[in-house]
Each structure stands twice: as structure tokens, then as C-alpha cells.
Amino acid sequence: MTAPEFGEVFRARFADLVAWRRDVRRFRPDPVPEDAFRTCLALACLSPSVGNSQPWRFVRVAGPARRQGVIASFERCNAEAAAGYDDDRAAAYRRLKLAGLREAPVHLAVFCDEGTSAGHGLGRATMPEMLRYSAVTAIHTFWLAARAHGLGVGWVSILCPGEVTAALDVPEAWRLIAYLCVGYPAEEHADPELVRHGWQAREEWGAALLER
């Protein structure tokens, strides 16, 4: 099999895809096409993983009671987080829309199966956290694939993992990595919402590079 060639046009389009990937909190009510959703999941499962362990586990959350359990966890954790800031920053925090849990047509929980025997432990004896990092690569791949299909993804981290795990009734060896809202964005922006609303400016990429 001949490896594909990725030319200048592709590289420019890929750069657009990465730059326009947004953390979406405002969704249209339109349903997500099943074929697009499954295609994004299939691409996510092509992600690299330590020892080829493929530890990611996806749970589509459709039951109203289970969704409400997640929403309740978010609302409690969100209130606690706001209380942890001083007055000005707390007011700014409360003005932010930090989740689209009530609007998003698809809820997708992503877990790492830390009890998996796949991969036979290769590459994680000294860094067992590599299993979780592998799940994160699948999340990012799903995110980019969703954007390429015109879908938006919002990563909700203001949650209690134990409460979400209990609400979804998953195996004990599974650890929550992400809770994603998926759907068509209600609006499009080139800049991240937290930048647009003055929470935190984006740093230049060079600030992340250290030479030794």
C-alpha cells in the first residue's frame, strides 16, 4: 500500500480545522446524523494508544434521568467553583456559559478502562497514566472529526467524576476522562469563548517551548 501524500492545500485546510476547533456551549436542537456520529467515533478509535491498549470507552448518555444526574453534578460543582473566586473574578465567572448540557442533542461520556489487559502492560509500567493520556488522544481526534463534519463539541469538566460514574452505572475499573456535549453550533467564532469574554487571553505558541 502506498502512503498518501499530504500537500500544501491539505496542510492549509488542516491548519484551518485546528484553528476553528472550538469548545462549544451553545447548540442548535437539530439531531446529529447517526452516520456522522459513528464516523467520528470510528476515527477516534484510530488514535494512538500506549502498547496499542485502546483503553477508551464511549458511553452515549440518552436517558433523561442519567442526564439530569450529570446536570445536577455540574450545577453543584459550578456553584462551588464560583464561590472560590474573589468578587470581581466571581462575577466574571458567573457571566460565562460553561456548558451546553441542556441544549446539546448528544451527551458522550469518555472513560479510560484502567483494568484492560489489552496491550499486555507495554509502555505503562513506569507511567501508568499513559492509559488516560491515550484516551485523551481519542477525544481530541473525535473533536477534530466532529468539526470536520460541521459539528461542535464542548468538554464539560466542572463535574464530580464519582457522581457521573455512579449516574451512568459503568464498571468500577473505568475512570471518567471527559464528558462531551455534541451537536451543531448555534454560532461560529474564530476566537475561543473565554478569550472573547475576557477571561483569559491566548498565549503565543512560542511561550510553551523551552530549549535545553
UniProtKB/TrEMBL annotation:
Which parts of the sequence belong to the Nitroreductase domain? 18-184
Top-level taxon in the UniProt lineage = Bacteria
Q: What is this protein called?
A: Cob(II)yrinic acid a,c-diamide reductase
Q: Entry's Pfam families?
A: Nitroreductase (PF00881)
Q: Which SUPFAM superfamilies match?
A: FMN-dependent nitroreductase-like
Q: Name one GO molecular function term.
A: oxidoreductase activity
Quote the NCBIfam families the UniProt record gives: BluB
